[in-house]
Amino acid sequence: MSIIVYTESWEEKFRKSTFEAVSYASEVAKMLSTNVIAISFGEESSEELAKLGNYGAEKVLACNQIEKGDSEATSNFLAENSIDANIIVFATTNTSKMIASRLSAKIKAGIVSNVIELPSEVSPVTLKRKSFSSKAIEQVKVNSDKAIICLASNSYGVIENHKNCSIEKKTINSSENIRFKGQEIANGKLSLAEAEIIVSAGRGLKGPENWKMIEDLAETLGAATACSKPVSDIGWRSHDEHVGQTGKAVAPNLYFAIGISGAIQHLAGVNSSKVMVVINTDPEAPFFKSADYGIVGDAFEIVPKLIEEIKKIR
Amino acid sequence: MNILVCISSVPDTTTKINFSDNGSKFDSSGVQFVINPYDEFGLTKAIMLKEKHGGKVTTITVGELNIEPVIRKALAIGADEAVRVNMSPKDSYSTAVEISNYISENTFDLIICGKESSDYNGGVVGGIIAELTNRPFVNACNGLSITQNTANLYREIDGGKENLEIDLPIIIGGQKGLVEESELRIPNMRGIMQARTKPLLVIEPKMNDILTESISFEKPSERGDCKIISNENVSELVSLLQNEAKVI
Ligand SMILES: Cc1cc2nc3c(=O)[nH]c(=O)nc-3n(C[C@H](O)[C@H](O)[C@H](O)COP(=O)(O)OP(=O)(O)OC[C@H]3O[C@@H](n4cnc5c(N)ncnc54)[C@H](O)[C@@H]3O)c2cc1C
Known about the structure:
The structure holds 2 protein chains of 2 kinds. By secondary structure, chain A is α/β, with parallel strands linked by helices. Chain A has 2 domains: 3-169, 3-Layer(aba) Sandwich (Rossmann fold), CATH 3.40.50.620; 197-313, TPP-binding domain (Rossmann fold, 3-Layer(aba) Sandwich), CATH 3.40.50. Chain A has helices spanning 16-31, 46-50, 71-80, 94-107, 212-221, 229-233, 264-270, 287-290, 299-313; strands at 3-6, 9-10, 13-14, 36-40, 59-63, 87-91, 110-115, 121-122, 125-131, 136-142, 147-151, 166-170, 178-185, 197-201, 224-227, 254-258, 275-280, 293-296. In chain A, the strands form 4 sheets. Chain A has a 7-stranded parallel sheet with strand order 7-11-6-1-4-5-12, with helices on both faces. In chain A, a hairpin with a 2-residue loop joins β8 (121-122) and β9. In chain A, α3 crosses α4 and α5 (212-221) packs parallel to α9 (299-313). The longest helix of chain A is centred in the first third of the chain and has 16 residues, at 16-31. The termini of chain A are far apart. Chain B has one domain (2-221): Rossmann fold (3-Layer(aba) Sandwich). Chain B has 6 helices and 15 strands. Chain B has helices at residues 37-53, 68-77, 92-104, 125-132, 189-195, 234-244, and strands at 2-6, 9-11, 19-20, 25-26, 33-35, 56-62, 81-85, 110-114, 137-147, 150-157, 160-167, 170-174, 200-203, 212-218, 227-228. In chain B, the strands form 3 sheets. In chain B, strands 11-10-9-12-8-1-6-7-13 form a 9-stranded mixed sheet, sandwiched between helices. In chain B, α2 packs across α5 and α3 (92-104) packs across α4 (125-132). The radius of gyration of chain B is 21 Å and the shape is globular. The N and C termini of chain B lie far apart (54 Å). The structure holds flavin-adenine dinucleotide. Residues 202-204, 228-231, 244-247, 259-261, 263, 265-266, 269, 279-282, 285, 298-300 of chain A line the site of flavin-adenine dinucleotide (FAD).
């Protein structure tokens, strides 16, 4: 009856969303008076694996390294090892959803993604999730005996809960269908999904040559950079920075919108941010209706001042 | 090459979302429906692959009669024929089962879903189809080329991209990058005329299980008023973020 958690690492370190998923699973385990078993496929060091115990895992099944994109092999292993489990927890990353969706068909478990809260009931599992591009919160009931929960990033938090955690090594074979050709790493970029602060800029910046101050502000804050859709469409910034309804949905603690008008499609992807700050020359820009703090002014004057002021306190 | 594009009909992105029946149902009155934006990239990609390699592009949509304008639009953009499974979609699983049934009775080399649909944002239909039809699956696919019988694909991962090679048939969950925004096809007059007579096959669902059920909806809590800080006083913003909001 244990709760199973799928874990994901990046460059041999577990992602923050994994620690969040383990924290969440251990609270669900408490509700069901059971324990948490984490499963890893990344051949992390034993020191790294032991960290899962800090957030409530009592056991880790640590497989040999297998490509993350091999959803057939990973979902098979998860199915074999969750026969007695009724709840399986994932993060809501691209990789997690790829594996979780296959697994759900394999074991016929109802799957709920973008989950933002603990279940209000565990039998049947009843949960709240983000829906309609964060324009709504939907309550969902799972009808099957087994449930797969994909937790939205930055929705529950990483919560320490130390447990003695045993590590059991496992072997698994890759599926033969997929040939991995390699990875391209977006160099030195902080991940938008995991960033606590995001500095985002729009067409108000006038051209790609003006992004230096945005990058400087982000660096001063330890933040990730993002942009509005037209900015990535015209090639001022790369596509992986595009946030909004048709780009990435993000939920940092603090979101800066600089020279972004606040179109409904943009807001849909960023509205889950805890605090939003807008800097815009136009006092009528719709973003002022959705933000917590705002400055009406020229980004080219305000941003350098902002960097200076933040440096004073850091 | 036979390509199947799964198309979801979703509210236009500018829609203000409302609910009826005490918050238990999405209120579709007055809402304009469009092709799911992620599926538009897949549809254009399918048409471009057909132009290069020959073959046929079929679309499939699970939905009732009222979604046919969205299907006709896909035909006007350039799909050859369309299939509609005559049921109102209830959850990801039952939707995927219906699509899988159709796939099992036909031959497709490539099946393109969107990475997610922009209404319920489940993002799991493609993976469920892949499992039910026993094919390799690549999610969040932002690059695809095909030589002979092999697909070369890119998959977006948090922090970078993964490059993979898989023999057809495969299923992908697509997004921008499959084609660029500027390459997206839009219907022209000729396409719209032709779409009227292209085949649109309606098939009845085989009843299947519903694994998850929507019970109710609510709007996210509203933010308080925006505090406006004078542009002469940037230090005040920093102090509010530090001491009031406690986020830096
Ligand atoms: C189907 C569909 C999907 C879409 N999906 C998305 C999406 O996912 N994400 C997204 O972002 N958009 C999306 N859009 C586009 C969206 O509707 C807006 O067009 C877009 O968000 C506007 O980008 P922007 O705010 O950067 O530019 P603009 O709307 O041009 O706004 C620029 C802003 O900068 C301000 N400004 C100008 N100069 C300065 C200055 N010196 N200092 C400070 N401020 C200045 C202006 O007052 C203005 O408010 C979508 C649209 C459609 C139709």
